[in-house]
Amino acid sequence: MSYNHLRQLSLTLIALFLAVIPLMGQKVSVRNFGDILDFAYTQSDEKQLWELQRLQEESSQRESKSELLPRLRAYGNWDNYLELPVQLLPSESVGGEPGTFTEIRFGTKYQVNLGLEFSIPLVDLELWNRIKTDRLKYEVAKEDISSQEHAWVEQLARSYYLLLLHKESLELAKNRYVLSDSIYRLAKAKFEIGELEPLPFHRIEASARSAKNQVFNQEKQVKTALNSLNRLIGADQTSEFEFLDQLADQQPEILTADYDLEQLPEWKMAQHRVDLNEQALKQSRTSHLPTLMATGSFYQQTLGNQLNLQDASSFEVGVWGLRLEWDIFQGGKQKTKTKTAALDYQIAQKQLEVTRQALVQEKLDLEAEIVHNQALATGFLPLLSVYESNYRLAGIQWAEGFIPVDELLQVENEWIDQQLDYLLALSELATSKALVSIRNHSYSQQP
């Protein structure tokens, strides 16, 4: 094979390799939850959806304000009268016989009107109140979007720490399997030479196989949690993440929930609903007042009996004036609307108080959970080491014949129970700390 042929083959392989690289999933190192959050803000479809919804609400708000601006309308029409309107006039007014009437047709067969019409509201309290109402609706919509976004961040935090929890559980399951498998291999050797009865051997075998199945189950849980996290952050399923953060390695830190309740989206939404219903009440009370509008128009009218109106007569008309409208009686509808608006306002005020009480309780619960679960997680670490040592020692003592199989399995079950309690406390601690950190950072630091 010639040198040029080898060189061409090498370049082709390199080109193929470079073409395949972009198709492979990217590898991302994750040091903490902040890295996952930063990745999600740039990749998640939910985040992009909320940004579009904010732009939509801003556009709707500007559309509402445009009703206060002057309005200029151009119009035009072409009419072909198949029959002209007829009026009856006394014949004597046109020199006819008294007591009789003469038919008179007015107008021309063809008419063209071209014009401009201008209007601007001068006094319209209902319009002003409606614009204020739309502005408050805009604020409520914004807070609703913010509430959805922060709920998404909290869900992301739960999914992230759930993944770390399953990874920690997987490590514990592997440690248990290593010890159980070692004892099982020893029991199998003793069983094969006749030193161990079938029932004790099968009980030890069942324990080892159960430990192995638990490893498989935790591996599945890790994969499922990772898929769920990938969906939330908008990552491609082929992306590879290297998680450097571990729950067991986190420094013990007692956080305090020092965020301001009035900065929470739930509080803001409730407060905006109070303002919205108060504005609706004002709008209902002023909707019966008169409105005043300035109007003006200018148009040109061309009339003729021939289709070609080029040489027909044309007339220009200009007019301006004021238009007053006042609904004096509406059959009691206005009174009913005002009463309903007043009830809605009272309900919104009560709902604000209910929201405040719920947020205060949530804040106290978060602080209590952090203190309680931090103490539990810290105390469990040396305790788990003791239970693991007990199981190792029990395996040695069983092998030497000092304890029966029942006691060996009892020590193993005690270790498993402590692992479950440890994982539960660790999960609640991580989630509580994440929620407090998110709320402290996202809300209390807002201007």
Automatic annotation (TrEMBL):
Entry keyword Repeat: no
Keyword terms of this UniProt record: Cell outer membrane, Membrane, Transmembrane, Transmembrane beta strand, Transport
InterPro entries hit by this protein: OMP_efflux, TolC-like
One Pfam family linked to the record: OEP
Subcellular location: Cell outer membrane
Major localisation: membrane
Domain of life: Bacteria
PANTHER family attached to this UniProt entry: OUTER MEMBRANE PROTEIN TOLC
Family: Belongs to the outer membrane factor (OMF) (TC 1.B.17) family.
Name this polypeptide is given: TolC family protein
Organism, as annotated: Algoriphagus aestuariicola
Taxonomic classification: Bacteria, Pseudomonadati, Bacteroidota, Cytophagia, Cytophagales
